[in-house]
Write a structure and sequence with these properties.
The protein has about 280 residues and is an alpha/beta fold. About 40% of the residues lie in helices and about 10% in strands. The protein has eleven helices and six strands. The protein has a six-stranded parallel beta sheet, with helices on both faces. The two termini are about 50 Å apart. About 25% of the residues are buried. The structure holds zinc ion. The site of zinc ion has 7 residues, from loops. One of its GO terms (molecular function) is tRNA-uridine aminocarboxypropyltransferase activity. One of its GO terms (biological process) is glycoRNA biosynthetic process. Keywords: S-adenosyl-L-methionine, Transferase, tRNA processing.
């Protein structure tokens, strides 16, 4: 759009010249001219300053990832509910808009907030109480998603919490609604490709990666995973080409003696790091 405007601007003076030639006797020519200018002044000033965003992928237009998105939204029966911590929405590198762009609108719902009460979110409450709804949250009470018997007659809903580990934990434990659905986890060998952001462990996946793996399992279709991951891979390689550094997981850094931050004094944190190095799932 910015380029389009520039193009019109460049063509402007030539038009004026032509106008001058065709209407030398008319006094209305300067008026027409000023009217033309008025139109330009009315354009909002921010337009040239704000980076225009692509309406589909949410990325700045110059780095639009739409060529890496499926031409048509994927046909899936599973519906995703992404519960997004407010801090996640303002991050520059967000993966949820990319995920949403791969799926039909009614199959990927994003709710932003920290607290989700039954009164304020009656639709979500109904979803949580449905026996076909699962929540992706690893832990002692979680079943491997691959072992879940999916009742194919009714479409399933998977709730995914989008945020850092502590934000996700906070959302899970402080909202009783999220403890109603069956708790599931992914036992995947997929290593996070989202190398731009440091993940606590190599197997800690971004929301988009979790959704890709979960959808492939639910829909019994491996190609879904590749399709959903493609824009993320493009995003990462683009960022790396433009100077972003590979962020290895803390686990990788510790194991390879590359962790250069001071070790925590807090005993609990130190213990967590020991567990990370020794491959204990935390
Ligand atoms: Zn785009």
């Amino acid at each position: 759009m910015e380029e389009e405007m520039l193009a019109t601007g460049a063509a402007g003076p030539r038009e004026e010249e032509e106008e001058g030639h065709t209407a030398p006797t008319s006094v209305s020519a300067p008026m027409e001219d000023s009217e033309g200018c008025e139109g330009l002044w009315e354009l909002p000033v921010e337009l040239s300053e704000r980076r225009p965003e692509c309406s589909r992928c949410g990325r700045p237009q110059k780095v639009c990832l739409c060529p890496f998105l499926p031409v048509h939204p994927l046909k899936v029966s599973t519906c995703l509910y992404i519960i997004q911590h407010p801090a996640e929405e303002s991050r520059v590198l967000r993966t949820v808009p990319l995920l949403a762009a791969c799926l039909p609108e009614d199959k990927c719902k994003v709710l932003i907030g920290r607290r989700f009460s039954e009164d304020r979110y009656p639709e979500l409450a109904t979803v949580c109480k449905n026996s076909n709804t699962l929540i992706l949250y690893p832990g002692a009470g979680a079943t491997n998603l691959e072992e879940i018997n999916i009742n194919s007659s009714d479409p399933c809903v998977i709730i995914i919490i989008d945020g850092t580990w502590s934000q996700a934990k906070d959302i899970f434990f402080k909202n009783s609604l999220f403890r109603i659905p069956k708790q599931v986890e992914l036992k995947t060998s997929l290593s996070s490709q989202y190398v731009i952001r440091t993940q606590p462990t190599n197997t800690c996946l971004s929301t988009l990666e979790c959704a890709a793996v979960a959808l492939a399992i639910m829909e019994k279709n491996e190609s879904i995973k590749e399709t959903v991951l493609r824009p993320l891979q493009a995003l990462c390689s683009f960022q790396l080409q433009h100077g972003a550094q590979v962020h290895h997981s803390k686990e990788h850094l510790l194991k390879n003696g590359l962790y250069d931050k001071p070790m925590p004094k807090n005993k609990r944190k130190l213990r967590r790091m020991e567990l990370l190095v020794n491959n204990v799932k935390i």
